[in-house]
């Protein structure tokens, strides 16, 4: 078997807090096979406020870039003792905008611990939408750790009282509550890695045409890794 082409690695540091977002282009060398597996999978409701459906995705394909992944986890995120995979799913955003609950209408963070990193592996092109990163205007927070959670949620409640409900739409760009500080577009076989505490939101360019059919929908692979 011919060796895989070398991937292209870029480390972004958006905003004032300069938290790393690692972008690896050409990660697996087999995006068509991953796409076919995702399209053959059986899906269930995503849960945990995910606006769509999910199916288990075997994470063992990460081993094709084992050395690179170890280097990124150690040098960028400071995990010296290793990492373990907590979640790995094929994911499809399917929820109509009118059905979004308030927390799905704004940027979110996945977990306040710095030990959790999120992986988004795009299987399709930029027309399906990437990921955007945000600063909360009133607090200035770009990440939410355990020490910030109480202040952050108090600020959100105050904004609801002052400004009214968050509009029923997928958030993108600047608003009265959030400022976009960076964006990474989708590309086939582009993988990004970032700490789960970053405020972020999936970019949904055409919400009216979201589909639960994996042959037509916004199919990605999402993972959470815990490092030490």
Walkthrough of the structure:
The protein has 228 residues and is of the alpha+beta class. The protein has a single domain, classed as Jelly Rolls (Sandwich), CATH 2.60.120. Helices cover 15% and strands 30% of the residues. It is built from three helices and eleven strands, in the order ββαββαβββαββββ. The protein has helices at 31-40, 66-75, 149-163; strands at residues 8-13, 20-25, 44-45, 52-56, 83-93, 116-122, 131-136, 178-184, 190-195, 200-202, 219-227. The strands form two sheets. The protein has an eight-stranded antiparallel sheet, covered by helices on one side. Strands 8-7-10 form a three-stranded antiparallel sheet, with no helix packed on it. The model has no long low-confidence stretch (mean pLDDT 95).
Task: Indicate the topology.
Layout: E1 8-13, E2 20-25, H1 31-40, E3 44-45, E4 52-56, H2 66-75, E5 83-93, E6 116-122, E7 131-136, H3 149-163, E8 178-184, E9 190-195, E10 200-202, E11 219-227
Antiparallel strand pairs: 1-2, 2-9, 3-4, 4-5, 5-11, 6-9, 6-11, 7-8, 7-10
Number of domains: 1
CATH class: Mainly Beta
Cα shape = globular
Average pLDDT metric: 95
Helix content: 10-25%
Question: What is the gyration radius calculated from CA atoms?
Answer: 17 Å
Provide the CATH topology: Jelly Rolls
Q: What fraction strand?
A: 25-35%
Annotated CATH architecture: Sandwich
The biggest sheet amounts to: 8 strands, antiparallel
């Amino acid at each position: 078997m011919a060796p895989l082409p070398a991937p292209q690695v870029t480390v972004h540091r958006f905003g004032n807090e300069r938290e790393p977002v690692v972008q690896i282009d050409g990660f697996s060398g087999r995006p068509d096979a991953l796409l076919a597996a995702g399209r053959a999978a059986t899906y269930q409701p995503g849960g945990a406020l995910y606006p769509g459906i999910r199916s288990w995705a075997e994470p063992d394909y990460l081993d094709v870039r084992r050395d690179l992944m170890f280097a990124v986890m150690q040098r960028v995120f400071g995990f010296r003792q290793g990492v373990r995979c907590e979640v790995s799913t094929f994911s499809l955003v399917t929820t109509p905008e009118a059905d979004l609950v308030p927390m799905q209408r704004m940027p979110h963070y996945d977990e306040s611990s710095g030990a959790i990193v999120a992986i988004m592996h795009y299987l399709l092109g930029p027309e399906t939408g990437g990921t955007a990163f945000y600063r909360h205007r009133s607090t200035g927070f770009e990440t939410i750790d355990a020490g910030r959670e109480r202040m952050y949620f108090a600020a959100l409640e105050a904004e609801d009282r002052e400004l009214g409900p968050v509009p029923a739409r997928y958030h993108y760009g600047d608003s009265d509550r959030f400022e976009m500080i960076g964006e990474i577009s989708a590309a086939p076989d582009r993988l990004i890695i970032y700490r789960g505490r970053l405020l972020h939101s999936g970019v949904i360019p055409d919400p009216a045409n979201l589909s639960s059919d994996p042959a037509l929908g916004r199919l990605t692979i999402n993972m959470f890794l815990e490092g030490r």
